[in-house]
């Protein structure tokens, strides 16, 4: 079956609208005094901030944003570092309270790539990494890849073997493709995220794994599009854009774009939820972030392939 690639204008439009919504709703990323009261709540509230930073990093790195998008992305990154994280002090305090949590390291890694520095946080991370406990912490394989990738971003000697960690993932073992249910599908996408450093190095996908994905990803894309699971579909579209020969399937991208709210938000599944602004934000901020970075990667590949 011949697949028609989506036009770059469609791919770009999805991301442009998503970024506009994220910018308009930036205040909902802000941590509250209640969030800071317990580290459990803080960890939950920091996750969207980390995702925002990774997203803006991808958009700026791929170089497909227009001047307005670049300005928005830069302003959101500055807002996240200075206001949401108090110049890194929030991460440093969390690292002090929970020295073996990988969350400060992973969030800081993306800021470090962008030139931000917090010496106190770096010293605290270095102290934790000197212990045996740091490498002994039990994690699912793709989470271990995330920690190793964050260490690589900071220029640190990895606390484990990257290839060995990858070999333990579901994707590296290439099991039966029909077993890809919801949590396994997210394991697949996150393995590719960390393996490629969020698309910066797609050549790190081993050829046999790239062939496996190229063979079965089209069916997975169609299945999750039929189910209207736009969050997971967006992550799989990002994976597609990392392959040596991405499909950029026009039909799937048209369905993805049609699901987007006129204001730019992307529903988690099926249609936009009801509720007040804060409730809706908590549900749709992740699929909207996913839509933005999938758009950036796909647009970049489409333009590169057109040259």
How would you explain this protein's 3D organization?
The chain is an all-alpha fold and 307 residues long. It has one domain (8-306). The protein is 68% helix and 0% strand. It has helices at 8-24, 33-37, 39-62, 67-84, 89-97, 103-113, 119-129, 132-136, 141-153, 162-167, 170-173, 182-195, 207-226, 230-242, 250-259, 277-306. α3 runs parallel beside α16 (277-306) and α6 (103-113) crosses α9. The longest helix has 30 residues, at 277-306. The radius of gyration is 19 Å and the shape is globular.
What would you call the shape? globular
Q: Strand share of the residues?
A: under 5%
Q: Uncertain runs with pLDDT below 50, 5 residues or more?
A: none
Q: Write down how many β-strands occur, each being a DSSP E stretch of 2 or more residues.
A: 0
Q: What's the end-to-end separation, in Å? A: 25 Å
| Count, helices | 16
- Nearest-angstrom radius of gyration? 19 Å
Quick one: biggest sheet?
none
Summed over residues and divided by their number, the pLDDT gives a mean of 92
Q: How much helicity do the residues have?
A: 55-70%
Count of discrete domains: 1
Order of helices and strands: HHHHHHHHHHHHHHHH
Structural class: mainly alpha
Organism: Streptomyces catenulae
Protein name: DUF6895 domain-containing protein
InterPro entries: DUF6895
Domain DUF6895: 16-296
